[in-house]
Design brief:
Helix 1 (2-18) packs antiparallel against helix 2 (22-43), helix 3 runs antiparallel to helix 4 (69-87) and helix 4 (69-87) crosses helix 5. The chain is 80% helix and 0% strand. The longest helix has 28 residues, at 96-123. The protein is mainly alpha-helical and 124 residues long. The chain is built from 5 helices and no strands.
Length: 124
């Protein structure tokens, strides 16, 4: 279920980006990161119910490894920008370049997490 949501949110983010709706694209991009993280955690027997819970468990299970520091940074950036887009008065000032970089980073995050998930599934 979560992986379906990942692709749906990522596709929506790209469509909103093309329409120039950058805060909405950021919102959708974040949820791609969130749901791919939840899918990974679910395979480990975890089912966090909050954004904070997902972040804490990702730190515990994945981000503590040095080779995944870049994923941790992408997660943090996506979360920060989503909070800006959704709650801050300045959220409407997310520009094209900022949004475009986040979308590229989110695609990297989702792609790498899908590989990690696939490896976990193959081990079972």
């Amino acid at each position: 279920m979560h992986l379906f949501k990942v692709q749906r949110h990522l596709q929506r983010a790209k469509q909103l980006f093309e329409l120039g709706m950058y805060p909405s694209a950021v919102h959708e991009a974040y949820y791609s990161v969130f749901h791919s993280s939840k899918a990974y955690l679910f395979l480990l027997g975890e089912d966090p119910q909050t954004h904070k819970g997902v972040r804490q468990l990702m730190n515990l299970y994945l981000f503590k490894e040095k080779k995944y520091v870049s994923l941790s940074k992408i997660y943090d950036q996506a979360m920060y920008m989503r909070q800006r887009a959704d709650y801050d008065v300045i959220g409407d000032f997310i520009d094209r370049e900022e949004c475009e970089k986040l979308l590229k980073d989110v695609e990297i995050y989702v792609g790498q997490l899908e590989k990690i998930i696939q490896n976990l599934i193959e081990k079972v």
